[in-house]
Amino acid sequence: MNKLINRPEYLNQLIQNKDVDLVKIVTGIRRCGKSSLLDLFHQYLADNGVCESNIVHMNLESLRYRHLCDYLSFYDYVSSLISKEGKTYLIFDELQAVEHWEKAIESFRIDFDVDIYITGSNAYLLSTEFSTLLSGRYVEIRMLPLSYKEFLSFYEFESALTQEEKFQRYLKFGGMPILREYKFNEARSNQALEGIYSTVVLRDILQRNNGTDQATLQKIVMFLCSNIGSITSPNNIGNILSTEGDIKNERGNNIAGKTVDKYISMLRNAFVFYSVGRYDVKGKQLLKTLGKNYIIDMGFRNMLLGYRDADRGHIIENIVYLELLRRDYRVYIGKMGETEIDFVAEKPDDKLYIQVTESMQSPETRARELRPLQMISDNYEKIVLSMDRSYISSYDGIKVLNLIDWLLS
Prior knowledge:
- By secondary structure, the chain is of the alpha/beta class.
- The protein is built from 15 helices and 13 strands.
- The radius of gyration is 23 Å and the shape is globular.
């Protein structure tokens, strides 16, 4: 086993949920570190006195378990491994390979003294049949690629590099843990990302959705990558691709919008993109139309489009969005009258309003970024994040922070 890199934020979530009677489900895009997290947890159990005979750890994508393709054979096989003495920890990687696995999991819970941990690279894992069967009896831990803070501890950098130069690498390579082995070699890194991306498309999208057209899917991915952080709707994407002749539009009946909607939801289910809805701050309600889409990792976008520095504003917006998810916020795009707030981020006891811009130096930009925040009358924290390093830290109570400092805070 190669040396495991600790991801303490995620490991602590597993440890905090240990022995709680809930199934622990770790979800996230392929290769973002879910299997390594389970290995770390296995190691933690062993280091804390749990006998190996009380740990059953299986990766269901391994061919040695190829005979376990349905829940009955899976149940019988695992039952024979469960220890008669004390609690057994069941750790299952990529469980979506077993048909109706949720029936077996529910049965283990009823029949034995066990604590169960699962990973899967597809949101279908939490689909309706499953949720119905295990409703209220599971906790989902969503795993993302490396945050900037993790990226800094994962890699070794030449000592002369400034913080800004390291951040530039993060923007370019993204946070997929596997890239560490290529030490910032661009060609090799792109090959690795391409391999992961193809697997996601083939295994988690095309195999699960019969009749999906790979060319159409690819066009939609390219469109979303080029329009990160832009407000769009499936109909409007459909119309643009139809006029370019990419998606057939059947006489006046806008099949394109429905098609686009369906494909975006497949991409969401495979954790490639996140869609963010809009929230009317004044009317305090979610709006049904027009949202934004953000990609799970900048490395994929750069691999697909080539790295372009021109889009830095949207790239850093994407990074802020993912960081808010890591910090357990629910995130919306805010609408305030005719203006827009990049992010309204909520927790049960906390709310943040955030604007993201590459620079606040010019008076026009400054006025534009501050205006929507100045219009909000509540007392929650309002922040503008930019790449500037300035001695001014607030305007009328609106905090102005350097993005890198905020990511490391």
